[in-house]
Design brief:
globular, about 15% strand, 2 domains, five-stranded mixed sheet, single chain, Cytochrome Bc1 Complex, Chain A, domain 1, six-stranded mixed sheet
Length: about 450
C-alpha cells in the first residue's frame, strides 16, 4: 500500500512540474554569427551558460590524449592575456561566480555560473578566459602535474582501472579507446605551446554551439554572443562521427593484479542516440539493473555493488560491472538471468514502476540550471534535437512492455569481458562458452 501511494505521489509531482514548465516562457533557439544558441528560460535568478566544442576524442590522435583536457583546465588555471591566475580568481571569488571548463569523450564544455545581478561583471571574465588564455608556463607545469597525478590515481583505483581496460579492449583501433585524461606517456611530452596551439585550432564557430539557461533578455543574449564570436574564426565544417559497437563473439581478456577481490566488466551492444528503440532499451537496462542486483547480491551474495548501465555517447554500449571473489559462480548467475529475461521479457508492473521512477529521477536531476544546460547540450550533440530534453516524458509514456523486452533481446547478446585480479580464480571458458555464446543477438545495423 505504501509503495502504491508513493507511486501516486510521483505521478502527481510529474504533472505539477509539467504545469509549472508550461507557465514559464518557452525555450527557443537562434543563430548568432553562424553559431546556434539555445535558450532555456529558468524561472530563477541564476545564469548558467555553456559553450560546447564538439569532437572530444575525435579531435586528436591517441598519442596526444589528454591535450584537450589540459587546454580546458588551462582556461581558468593559467591566467589570461590581461591578468594572472590569482587576479582572475580573486575577481571570480568576489562575485561568487564560476568559470571553468572540462573535456569528455564527445565534447568539451566551457561554462559560467553566477547570479543574475552579477552577470554584467562575470560575462567579460568568461569571454576573456575563453578567447584570451595565456597558458603561462609555470601554471601549466602545475596543471600538467595534477593531471598526471590523476592518471596514476585512476590506475590505482580498481573501478576506474577496469573501465579503462574494458574501453581499450572493446574499442581497439577506434576513437573511444582513448581516455580523455590521457596516459602518462601521452601527457608527459606536452608543452604549454602545444596546448595553446591545439586550443587555437579547436576554438572555432564550426565546432561550437551555446546553451543559455537563464532569464535574460533575448536581445542582450544576442549582442553578448555576437561580441564573443567577433574574434573567433569559422573553421572547417565538423560533424561528430557516430558508430555502432557489436561483439561478434564472447571474448575474455585478463590483466593480472594483486587485489583483495576480482573485478569484471563486460561490454555489449546498445542502440545509438536517435534509434527508434533507444528509449525502450534505456528503460530495459534500468529494470535489468534491478534484476541483476537482486540476483547477484541479495539472492547469491556474490558482490557488494553489482552494476549494469547503458553508457550513452557517440558510441553507445551496455556495461556490466561486478567485483567478486567467485567469478565463475557470477557468470553462471548472469547467464541464467539473461536467458530468463530474454525468454520471459519484462512485466507490466516492472515497466510501469520504472517509467515513473526514471522520469522522477530526470526531473530531480534537472532541478539546477547547470543540469538543465548539460541535458540540452548532450541532446543537441547526440540526438541533433535539444527539444528532446523537454519532450522526454512523452517518449517514455508511450513505451510498452513488449517494446522494452524486444529492445533487450535485440541488443544483449555476445559480450566482450575483461578481468583484473587473480587469474587462478577464474575459468575463462565459462565466460566465452556460456549460454550467450549461441549468437542469439539479432542486431542488424
Amino acid at each position: 500500500m505504501k509503495k502504491r501511494m508513493f507511486m501516486l505521489l510521483i505521478t502527481a509531482s510529474l504533472f505539477s512540474i509539467n504545469e509549472v514548465n508550461a507557465q514559464q516562457q518557452q525555450p527557443y533557439e537562434m543563430t548568432v554569427s553562424g553559431v546556434k544558441v539555445i535558450v532555456q528560460p529558468s524561472g530563477n535568478d541564476i545564469v548558467e551558460i555553456q559553450t560546447i566544442l564538439k569532437g572530444g576524442v575525435q579531435n586528436y590522435p591517441a598519442n596526444k590524449a589528454g591535450i584537450e583536457a589540459l587546454a580546458m583546465t588551462g582556461l581558468s588555471e593559467c591566467g589570461t592575456q590581461k591578468q594572472d591566475k590569482n587576479s582572475f580568481k580573486n575577481k571570480m571569488d568576489k562575485l561568487s561566480a564560476q568559470v571553468g571548463a572540462g573535456a569528455g569523450k564527445d565534447y568539451a564544455v566551457i561554462r559560467m555560473n553566477c547570479i543574475k545581478s552579477d552577470f554584467e561583471n562575470v560575462w567579460p571574465l568568461y569571454v576573456e578566459a575563453m578567447t584570451m588564455p595565456k597558458y603561462d608556463e609555470k601554471e601549466f607545469a602545475r596543471i600538467k602535474q595534477n593531471q598526471l597525478t590523476g592518471i596514476k590515481a585512476q590506475e590505482a583505483q580498481p573501478d576506474a582501472a577496469i573501465d579503462n581496460f574494458a574501453n581499450k579492449m572493446a574499442f581497439e583501433g577506434r576513437d573511444y579507446a582513448v581516455n580523455p585524461s590521457g596516459t602518462a606517456e601521452s601527457v608527459t611530452p606536452l608543452t604549454a605551446a602545444d596546448v595553446k596551439a591545439y586550443y587555437a585550432n579547436l576554438l572555432t564557430k564550426s565546432r561550437m554551439y551555446i546553451i543559455v539557461v537563464a532569464d535574460l533578455d533575448r536581445m542582450d543574449i544576442e549582442n553578448k554572443v555576437k561580441g564573443l564570436l567577433s574574434g573567433i574564426k569559422q573553421g572547417s565544417p565538423f560533424t561528430l562521427k557516430k558508430s555502432f559497437f557489436r561483439a561478434y563473439k564472447n571474448t575474455f581478456s585478463t590483466d593480472t593484479r594483486e587485489l583483495a577481490t576480482n573485478y569484471i566488466e563486460g561490454v555489449s551492444s546498445g542502440p545509438q542516440p536517435g534509434a527508434p528503440d533507444f528509449d525502450a532499451f534505456n528503460i530495459a537496462m534500468r529494470i535489468f539493473y534491478d534484476r541483476h542486483f537482486l540476483d547477484v547480491r541479495t539472492n547469491n551474495g556474490l558482490s557488494y555493488a553489482p552494476q549494469v548501465r547503458f553508457a550513452v555517447g557517440a558510441t553507445s554500449v551496455t556495461k556490466i560491472n561486478v567485483s567478486t571473489t567467485q567469478p565463475d559462480k557470477y557468470i553462471a548467475v548472469f547467464d541464467k538471468l539473461v536467458d530468463k529475461t530474454k525468454s520471459g521479457g519484462f512485466t507490466e508492473d516492472e515497466v510501469k514502476n520504472m517509467k515513473a521512477s526514471y522520469l522522477t529521477g530526470v526531473y530531480y536531476r534537472n532541478e539546477t540550471n547547470t543540469a538543465q544546460a548539460s541535458a540540452l547540450a548532450s541532446n543537441e550533440l547526440l540526438f541533433n534535437d535539444w527539444k528532446r530534453t523537454n519532450n522526454l516524458v512523452d517518449h517514455i509514456k508511450k513505451l510498452t512492455p513488449a517494446q522494452i523486452s524486444d529492445a533487450f533481446r535485440k541488443y544483449i547478446g555476445n559480450i566482450m569481458w575483461v578481468y583484473q585480479g587473480d587469474p587462478k580464480k577464474v575459468t575463462p571458458t565459462l565466460f566465452t562458452n556460456g549460454t550467450l555464446h549461441k549468437g542469439d543477438n539479432p542486431v542488424m545495423q
